[in-house]
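Example 3.2
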Amino acid sequence: MVNIENINETGTQTPVETPRSGPLGLWDRLVGPSASVTEQALVLAFGVVFTGVVFFYARTKALDWTVIQQLLVAFLALDIAGGIVANTTTSGVEWWHRPSQRRRDHFAFVALHIYPFALALVFETVSWAEGALVYGYLLGSAVMILLSPRHLRRPVAMLFTAVGILLALVGVSFGPGLEWFVPFLYLKLLGGHLAAE
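Structure, written as tokens:
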């Protein structure tokens, strides 16, 4: 079903598909209703493979995570890794940046990612202060990106992504097995979701 209009690069309106109903509609809302089989496969493959790598690493390092910790890490790894790909596909960009989406919608999407606090809740290696720093940087960066002129949004987003990755490398430590979390979170949301022009 097509009933949403989108302005393409040539300035003409192109239809944007609407999500299907039921459980498949939820998937459509994540990857974009027009996602090709290849795009969907990339999203799923990277999410699943990356999650497997995280757990393989945790096992080789004998991290001894609780069931709750394992469930949280599985969800976060799948969501964030898959989201890095989903937010940068053509269909994902068309869906998440359709004309009805405003700055406040993009900010709300970013703000919903309270993942640093979820990690602080269940991992002793993640402090609440570090969680607040990571989340605060995420929200502050989102504001700066969203306030940038549209034609500068991508370079500004990449600037804040790069600085955020540096912050992750030298400013915070979420502990063994979670080293990927902050850089990947910033790649998904700042360099991916908010970078679309």
